[in-house]
Amino acid sequence: MAPTETLFIEATTAIKKDAMHSFMEFQVWDLPGQIDYLDPSFDADDIFGGVGAMIWVLDAQDEYHHPIMSLVDTILHLQQTYTDIKYAVFIHKVDSLTDDFRLDTIRDINQRITDELMDAGLENPPVSFYPTSIFDHSIFEAFSKVIQVLVPQLPTLEALLNTVAASCKMDKVYLFDVLSKIYIASDTCPVDMAAYELCSDWIDTIVDMSEIYAYQRSEEEAGNERVGARERDIRKQSAESTVGGVRGNSLYLKEINTYLCLIGVSSEPRFEVEKPLIDHNVQVFQDSLVDVFARNPN
């Protein structure tokens, strides 16, 4: 959906559920702001009983004092029963603010929420803050960070990707969920938004091309790949691509399974020359990934 088309989306007036069927099976619940979740007659357990993360969207261009107090009351109420929930605040519509005012707004929202929660006795509040906009890929970046909190194997994945980045001399390595363009993990180097946007756009291109040229996989193959039990002949048919000279970067893409792909970014055009060595290192990572998820399939 183009950003301009969001103008025609109606406001949320009822609870909506959308399921995401990909590498990670999860549901997104869209909750309207006018519902009083603190009302005793409201069945909180039906919604929050199985929640891993809650995202609260604040309009950076609007008066946000009342939404902040509502968020604080909600967190304090839920923490009494659902202590495992992680909270993320999307500070939305920051694109139209000047650089200085944007930083001041983000800092002010962060400080207000943190102070209110700590004053109420909640030490080290489990709240993260992300500036977002529909006119760039910041919304995908924010969702990626939220999803990563829910991945128990994240430290292991980051360590493996650090090894790939070092052995292949890549500036940045991502493990993407192809359908959602959310990255499940990356190496521990800082994320370059320009490179991330490049990877995201490249996934769109590869997916479009795959719809034309890719072979049709059987349901058995797809099912085996979901849990990580992949056969050697399936690996040999994995999609891969390299491209250089894109905004000064070279990109390497390797399909891990139907749902995941690895993308490496380098400022130097070495992928074509060193591709056999890179393929070997990525194959070792792929084998290790099977072992990681086999130990904890959930």
Biggest β-sheet: strands ordered side by side in the sheet:
7-6-10-9-8
Question: Largest sheet at a glance?
Answer: 5 strands, antiparallel
Give the tally of β-strands: 10
Helix-strand pattern: EEHEHEHEHHEEHHHEEEH
Beta-strand content: 15-25%
Spans of 5+ residues with little confidence (pLDDT < 50)?
A: 225-236
Helix content: 40-55%
**Class by alpha and beta content:** alpha+beta
| Average pLDDT figure | 82
Give the count of helical stretches.
9
Shape: globular
Radius of gyration: 21 Å
Distance between the termini: 31 Å
What does this molecule look like?
The chain has 298 residues and is of the alpha+beta class. Strands 7-6-10-9-8 form a five-stranded antiparallel β-sheet. It has a three-stranded parallel β-sheet with strand order 3-4-5, sandwiched between helices. A hairpin with a 4-residue loop joins strand 6 and strand 7. The radius of gyration is 21 Å and the shape is globular.
Quickly list its features.
alpha+beta; 10 strands; 9 helices; 298 residues
